[in-house]
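Dear support,

I submitted the protein below through the web form. The confirmation email said the job was done, but the results page showed an empty box. After a refresh the structure appeared. I'm attaching both so you can tell me whether what I see now is the final result or a partial one.
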Amino acid sequence: MIEMITPLQAQEMVQGGQAILVDIREEEEYRQVHIAGSYLKPLSLLIDMPPAENPGATAIFFCHSGGRTGANRPLLEKQGYVKSYIIEGGIMGWQKAGLPVRETKQAAIPIMRQVQIAAGSLMLLFIILSLWLPAALWLAALVGMGLIVAGISGFCGLAKLLQLMPWNRA
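What the results page shows now:
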């Protein structure tokens, strides 16, 4: 069973060489702010990743606020570490404890939030447009279908398109 530990306990373990930090957030989130020396293993890719490179290590997992790590304990337990912990409050808890992080000055909104904003805006636009052109409802349905396909398959064409935008380039 994965135990919760405070950010200060996590820092002590890492500084003492007793554990490694594993960030399960997505790459965009990591680029915005991360803990120096942490390993990035996005939750979306963890299922397909091989077990831990260093199975003798103790891992301390964290996400943004602790919700993702807490909800995915069974998956994290299967990663092959000797012992695993979760940081209470995630990276937000780490920052609230006054511990250092590396931040990027100019960070874009995470891709999935951009997808939500774009898809919601398109659907609203097409529904309003359908008041004058009833066939525009089909365009709103097409956006909804795209979201369903993205949820089922894991491939989101809108996310791929948004990643090409200038504000999302590293």
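Response: this is the final, complete result; the empty box was a page-load delay. The two ends are 38 Å apart (CA to CA).
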